[in-house]
Amino acid sequence: MSIISPTSWSAGTAELASLDDFIHALDAEISASGESAAVAVLVLSLRRTDRIAALTLPEYAGQVRQCFLERIQPVLRDKDKLVFVSEDECWLMLPQLTSEALAILAVHRLLNELSKPLKVAAQTIFFNPSIGIACAPMHGNSAVSLLRVADSAQKSAQRDNEKFLMPQARAGQSVMPDNLLVVLEEVLDANRLTMRYQPKVDLHSNRVVSVEALVRWPSDHPLTIETTHLIDIAERCGLIELLTMRVFNQVLHEVVNWRSAGMEMLVWVNLSARLLSHEQLPKILARILSIWDVPASSIGLEITESALIHDIEHTTNLLFELKDMGFHLSIDDFGTGYSSLAYLRRFPIDELKIDRMFIHGMTDSVQDKQIVQSIIGLAHNFGLPVVAEGVEDEKTLTALELLGCDQIQGFWFAKPMHGDQLMRWCNEFHRTVKR
In this prediction, what percent of the chain has a pLDDT beyond 70? Predict the structure, then answer.
C-alpha cells in the first residue's frame, strides 16, 4: 500500500500537494486500465469517537494515524493508494481489479478491521465508518468524476445509516452479484473447481518435462469467473487456503492416476502470496502429501516475484523448509516485481519464469527483447533454467531459442487440457516431434 500523506510535503501546500498527487495517480491508473480491468475509489468517513482529541493534540493525532494505517495494512495490496483529506476522512484507490465486485469485497474487509476499537495512549477509539464506492469505467472515466460519485455515495450511506454504498451501473453495464462470496463458498464446499494442465517443453531435448496446474471455475455454473478474478476474490475473502487445498487434492489425485498408468510428471502449482505468510503451510502441505502418498519431489511450487519480498526473513526460512521437504521452487512472472541479485542468491530457487508480457512483445519491441535476454543471462549465471510462458507463434519460439531459453510454455505447443487428455497428448507429442 502506498500512503500519500500531507506530512510528506512542506507546510502550507501540504494538503493540496498530496491530494493533487492522488488525483494524478488515479487519472493515470484509469487511462492505463483496459476493458477487462477496473479501478475503484473509496471515500471513507471514519466518524471517530476521539475527534476533539485528534483536532487539539497534534502528536496524538499522528499516533492514531499510524495505528490506523497498521490496522488496515493487511487488507490492502502494495499497489493500492491512500490519502488522508482530514483527520476523519481518507480516500483509497484500488487499481487493476478484475471486477467491480472486488471493490465490495475489499470494503467488507476494511469494515471488519474497523469494527474493532483502536487503543492509542489512554484513548480507546471507536469507529462508525461509512464508505462510498465508485469504479471506472462503470461510474466514470476520470478521477474527478469518480470522486464525485464516491463522495455522494458516502453521504447517502451515512444518511441512510448504511456501512457502504456503490451506485448502480450505468445503462448497459453490469456488475458481479452481491452474493459473490456465498457463491464462491458454495463452489469450494462442493469441490466443483476443475483443473487444466499445460505442458512445459524443454527446447534442448524436445521433451515434456513438467506441466502447470491451472484452476478453472466450473464451466456449467451460471456465473462466469476468470481465474485471475477467482484468485483475487479468494484472497480478499480469506478463502485462499481452502481454494489451494482443493487444488492440491485434485492435482495429487491426478498424479496418482498418472503414476498408476506409468507416467511420472512434475506438476507445478501456483502458491498465493497471502498463503506464503501462513506459518503452518509446510505442515499443511506435508499432511496432504501423506494422504495421497505422493512425494514432494513430484510437485513444484510457483511463487510470484513480488510475493517473495514482503517479509524477506520469513520467506527465506519458509522456502528452505519447503525445499528441504523436496518441493521444486520457481519464481513466476519474473521481471514484473522487485527482485535483486541478492534475493536470487539467497532463495533456494530451481528456475525462473519470464512473465508473458515481455514474451508477447519481444519480437516487436527491442526493449522487451533486451529484458528477456537479460533475464536469461542472469538466470544462467546463477545456474537456473529459464521458462518462457505465453509463447504462441513460431517467430517468438525461434527468437527464444536463439537467446538460449530452456523451456517453453504456451499455445504454440498446447493449450491447457484435462488431466485424462495429458497422457495421450504427451505420447503423441513425443512420437511425432523432431529430436
Answer: 86
Sign, CA dihedral 270-272-277-281, equals negative
Q: What is the DSSP letter of 73?
A: G
> For the chain, what is the mean pLDDT?
83
Does the domain at residues 180-432 carry the CATH identifier 3.20.20.450? yes
Matching residue, cell 521458462: 387
Tens of pLDDT, residues 46-85 = 887 776 665 556 677 778 778 888 888 888 888 899 998 8
71, burial (CB in 10 Å: exposed 0-12, middle 13-18, buried 19+)? middle
Exposure class string for 258-275: b at 16+ Cβ within 10 A, else e:
beeeeeebebbbbbbbbb
- pLDDT band of 222, cuts 50, 70, 90: confident
CATH 3.30.70.270 boundaries in the chain: 2-165
> Is domain 2-165 given the CATH code 3.30.70.270 in the classification?
yes
Going by pLDDT thresholds of 50, 70 and 90, the confidence category of residue 263 is: very high
Total number of residues shown for the chain:
435
Q: Where do the CATH 3.20.20.450 domains begin and end in the chain?
A: 180-432
Grid coordinates of 122:
489512554
